[in-house]
């Protein structure tokens, strides 16, 4: 027996002579031939002669111990002793291939499968993140979701078959449509239907984008006025569109495409828009019917679902923690907020808001509307056509989001409003507005009339 065989085999322990004859011989368990005990190898509790060794035994590919082929717990290409298989390996429940146990992938129904089967036979739900078999998912060119999420939150466009969330679907003649199909089939004129929502155009470079809905009233729900306004603002780029809003008496809603804060401040012509609307007879703050709503993209709150939900829960906590100051900042009354942007109620910790975030809030008429799948919406601010107020509002929302993303629960819990505005709110537009509302650390200043 050469040295290589010595590595993988061993003789029976001293004193184990249960299969030896009195003359020092034993029988090979494979071929039944009698051999001198010194010429036999002890493999898996059996004596094996050298002639039977190669054909009837293999070496465990993990620990190297020689075993009988009949006791191979692995495969022909990957032989394994029983101990190594049970400790480190498992079979794919789909194809039966033996793979390291820590490389198995779990499917939502509990199956443990190999990575090849996972790649070929499963998909990831884009809403809940669960891995499901392809047959248990709904697919379209625009997204893939598991059957459970589809049944609860989605429908399909009657025209192009795209998967769309219920909140983003447009209904006409009893059928659901995506935005593009609805627009091409059913809309025309300067002021679009309230359900109108074109594919977003993102302006500016960054990860956080703000989409603004500014309601204006008293000047007429007039297509010509809307077209005149859009002609001025959209001269170089399609920055805004206009929509019907049933909460207004005689006006419409101006909606921006998503833009970074820098783009809103330096390239979106808010002052020109406000002045043109005022010259047409529109007002926003004064009627008491208008809101200034700010959407923030959900994916800016983290690169995983858990991070996004945790940070959005901190946004809710911050708004509730500073509710008195937020109320003054909003220029609304408690009664107005209760109707259009009701508070969730203070809780002692951001973690206590997690369930609300996971369940998409308590309806769209909340201070922070969580019903949209792609954005959260700050609804608490009263409308205005005063340029500085518009910019200050966007700056405050940005700082609330910054605080939620970068600070710990403990830091946010201990942070006073005064410390927040001193440490975060440094832009001149925001400081001016905070002073006008009497919620800055210094004395209030005289303010121009809101419009």
Could you describe the 3D structure shown?
It is a single chain. This protein has 451 residues and is α+β, with helices and mostly antiparallel strands. The protein folds into 3 domains: 3-87, no CATH class; 92-186, no CATH class; 210-436, Creatine Kinase, Chain A, domain 2. 33% of the residues lie in helices and 20% in strands. The protein contains 17 helices and 25 strands. The strands form 10 sheets. Strands 19-21-22-20-23-25-24 form a 7-stranded mixed sheet, covered by helices on one side. The chain has a two-stranded antiparallel ribbon with strand order 1-2. A hairpin with a 2-residue loop joins β3 and β4. α10 (305-321) crosses α14. The termini are far apart.
Total discrete domains? 3
- Residue stretches low in confidence (pLDDT < 50, at least 5 long) are 1-18
Mean pLDDT: 89
CATH architecture of the largest domain: 2-Layer Sandwich
Largest sheet: 7 strands, mixed
Number of helices: 17
Radius of gyration from the CA trace? 35 Å
Broad shape: elongated
Largest sheet strand order? 19-21-22-20-23-25-24
Say what the CATH topology of the largest domain is. Answer: Creatine Kinase, Chain A, domain 2
Residue share in helix: 25-40%
What's the CATH class of the largest domain, please? Answer: Alpha Beta
**Structural class, from helix and strand content?**
alpha+beta
Number of strands: 25
In percent, how much strand structure appears in the residues? 15-25%
| Termini separation | 100 Å
